[in-house]
Write a structure and sequence with these properties.
alpha/beta, single chain, Rossmann fold, 6 helices, 5-stranded mixed barrel, 9 strands
């Protein structure tokens, strides 16, 4: 997709399904179906990109988006719930992310917190509440590890960190967005509860979460970013 094909507001996801549903809803063309990152833009100037999985891809897409300098970016991802209050199908609107992945260290020292843009999250929160849905706020932990659910030492460390969820992209997206002066946020869908053996993600359980919650997840993202574009004042990035 050429740079001028991207809208001013961007939805990021890890799933081709989200891009397909977006294109169906707005009857728009998907670019790059034969390449790693598929994208589509609707008539309102909202673009969705499937950037893949993991922190390397998260950093890459946030660097590539500097060519467009979007007004706002919202990540629609899945995460593991780490608290008794976070059940499968719940939404998490993270107030921060712990940088356990290492990739973000190439952009800022470890002491710099990985934070979203508050004003963007306010619009997302409003859309969730308008639908009568519950959501959780808290800190999520971002890791590069793909298989860790049976590592007792790692699980014990997660408990000490008191994070509400765990994923593989959020901290990197927040930090690289900060480095590139891109307003950013994340709305995470709890797809598994890995502290419990019966809650570890399987192909079947993930398919069920997708069937029951992915369309709502996508709809909230579309509504929030469209509302920002129509009604919101600019989301300013402060320079220190």
């Amino acid at each position: 997709m050429p740079v001028d094909g991207f809208g001013e507001y961007i939805l990021l996801t890890n799933f081709a399904y989200y891009v397909d549903r977006f294109a169906e809803r707005f009857d728009c063309r998907i670019t790059g179906t034969d390449r790693p990152m598929q994208a589509a833009t609707n008539d309102d100037g909202l673009t969705i990109v499937n950037f893949g999985i993991g922190t390397a891809n998260a950093a890459t897409i946030m660097d590539l988006l500097t060519a467009r300098q979007p007004a706002g970016v919202l990540f629609l991802g899945k995460c593991g719930g780490l608290k008794h209050s976070t059940e499968i199908g719940h939404f998490i609107l993270p107030i921060a992310a712990i940088r356990g992945e290492g990739t973000s260290n190439d952009y800022f020292p470890p002491e710099v917190p990985a934070l979203p843009s508050f004003k963007l999250h306010k619009f997302v929160s409003d859309r969730i509440v308008a639908r009568g849905l519950e959501y959780r706020t808290g800190v999520v932990y971002t890791t590069n590890r793909r298989v860790w659910e049976h590592d007792q030492e790692f699980l014990a460390r997660l408990r000490r960190l008191t994070a509400i969820g765990i994923d593989m992209e959020t901290a990197t997206l927040f930090i690289v967005g900060h480095a590139n002066r891109i307003s950013r946020g994340a709305l995470l869908l709890v797809s598994d509860v890995p502290f419990h053996p019966q809650g570890i993600k399987t192909e079947e359980s993930d398919a069920q979460v997708t069937a029951e919650w992915s369309d709502v997840h996508l709809d909230i993202g579309i509504e929030a970013m469209t509302q920002i574009a129509r009604e919101g004042e600019p989301i300013k990035h402060f320079t220190f």
